[in-house]
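Try this one yourself first.
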């Protein structure tokens, strides 16, 4: 089961990398020194990664594991290790060594302002994730 925000939210998430990336690209074109240009190009690449990952942010619930795709990294959590889905929302889980971990679900956080449809989708996704974590 794939849980993702609405298309509007996904496009907004893309903007988190796209907007500064455009600024860095303009700077790269106008930069005089090679070192400044190289730094700007590296920043543009980093922004492109954040833009793509922002669009793809979400959760995939598989039979034996949970795959959380965030803005920077992807984490795979064994289903048996999940202990709770918090209201934040975040996933609390335990490593095989017994260490307690917390993985936030940034794609499903609800800002104070937003469309009702987006907030409803995020709540529905969190509820579906809780059901999956409980084995249902």
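Now uncover the answer:
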């Amino acid at each position: 089961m794939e849980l993702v925000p609405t298309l509007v939210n996904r496009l907004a998430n893309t903007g988190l990398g796209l907007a500064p990336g455009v600024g860095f690209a303009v700077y790269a074109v106008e930069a005089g020194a090679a070192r400044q240009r190289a730094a700007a190009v590296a920043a543009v690449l980093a922004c492109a990664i954040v833009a793509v990952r922002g669009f793809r942010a979400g959760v995939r619930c598989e039979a034996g594991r949970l795959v959380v795709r965030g803005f920077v990294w992807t984490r795979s959590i064994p289903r048996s290790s999940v202990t709770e889905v918090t209201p934040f929302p975040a996933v609390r889980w335990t490593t095989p060594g017994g260490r307690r971990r917390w993985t936030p679900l940034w794609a499903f956080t609800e800002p104070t302002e937003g469309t009702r449809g987006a907030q409803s989708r995020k709540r529905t996704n969190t509820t579906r994730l809780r059901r999956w974590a409980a084995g249902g």
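Discussion: The chain is about 50% helix and 25% strand. The first helix runs from residue 7 to 30.
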